[in-house]
From TrEMBL:
Catalytic activity as recorded in UniProt: L-ectoine + 2-oxoglutarate + O2 = 5-hydroxyectoine + succinate + CO2
Superkingdom per UniProt: Bacteria
Any Pfam family the entry gives: PhyH
Subunit structure: Homodimer.
Names of the cofactor(s): Fe(2+)
Keyword Iron: yes
Keyword Oxidoreductase: yes
MF GO annotations: oxidoreductase activity
The protein's name in its UniProt record: Ectoine hydroxylase
EC number(s) reported in the record: 1.14.11.55
Length: 292
């Protein structure tokens, strides 16, 4: 007997987009540091820019920590994702590999915001360091994270939020993240079955679980595109269902960030909705233990 799925995807034929069932903001103004204007903006646009989330000595320490992790991890560690040319693209589970990153998760400028947006206790669904080195860093195609987390990880509802903390300057020309504001209110089902161990290739170049060009064109015509730029230490908070992507970095200016995904403890993972088996733990934590 098949279970009900409010967000069917990875289908053999196209279907109409599905209006979102859940609220975007679960908490109120008295539940955390964000003002009502911040909460209203996040609800409307699906994202929030928070300058100065990490300041002072944290930034050089974190940049040094990236180098340490890259050097210490075995070359064949699955948590180390490389670009086709061999440079490091992502390092997964940095909050478990580094006490420093674990402290960032619990900063007053980070954890209370996640709790406020999601309306209670949260846990880390996924964490990674994204590296986009100069000249060789390739982009991330347009996608909704929730589509993957729902299809391949078994995340039941849209009650997760991402926090991308810039460790370097984000310029309009070095591969900074683009978002389609307002697109989080619609789930865009995708066509194409999930291959076995799809994550082996999708973490480098995602081809399954992405909207088609007609769908993307309509979304951009309706909502436009915004881009996250700014100084190191700023953070971009964005809803799990917001369409986003980035171009490649052909400049000599590297771009790196700490990427933290918070999920509500009331939204813990079940069996995948459109994949043969769950992805590994370093991509999708299946223990919903609240961050203390």
């Amino acid at each position: 007997m098949s279970r009900p799925d409010p967000y069917p995807t990875r289908l053999d034929h196209a279907i109409e987009p599905i209006p979102r069932h859940e609220p975007t903001v679960w908490g109120g103004e008295t539940d955390g540091p964000l003002t009502q204007n911040h909460l209203d903006g996040f609800s409307e646009y699906g994202y929030l820019v928070a300058p100065g989330t990490v300041v002072g000595d944290w930034l050089p320490l974190l940049r040094h920590e990236i180098d340490r992790l890259a050097a210490d991890l075995d070359a064949d560690d699955p948590r180390l994702i490389r670009e086709p040319g061999g440079t490091i693209r992502s390092i997964f589970e940095p909050h478990l590999l580094s006490d420093l990153v674990a402290q960032v998760v619990r900063l007053d400028s980070v954890l209370p915001v996640a709790r406020q947006l999601l309306g209670g206790d949260v846990y880390i669904h996924q964490a990674r360091i994204n590296l986009m080195p100069g000249f060789t860093g390739t982009g991330f195609y347009w996608h909704s994270d929730f589509e993957t987390w729902h299809a391949e990880d078994g995340m039941p509802a849209i009650r997760a939020v991402s926090c991308s903390i810039a460790l370097t300057h984000n310029y309009p020309y070095n591969g900074s993240l683009m978002v389609i504001p307002g697109s989080h209110q619609t789930f865009y089902p995708c066509v194409g079955a999930t291959p076995t161990d799809n994550h082996d290739t999708s973490l480098v170049a995602q081809n399954i679980g992405v909207p088609d060009q007609t769908t993307l064109t309509k979304a951009v015509d309706q909502y436009g595109i915004h881009q996250f730029t700014g100084a190191p230490g700023g953070a971009l908070w964005f809803d799990a269902n917001l369409l986003h992507g980035s171009g490649s970095n052909i400049t000599p200016l590297p771009r790196s960030n700490v990427f933290l995904v918070f999920n509500s403890v009331d939204n813990s993972l079940v069996e995948p909705f459109a994949a043969p088996r769950p992805r590994p733990e370093y991509l999708a934590a299946r223990c919903a233990r609240p961050v203390a």
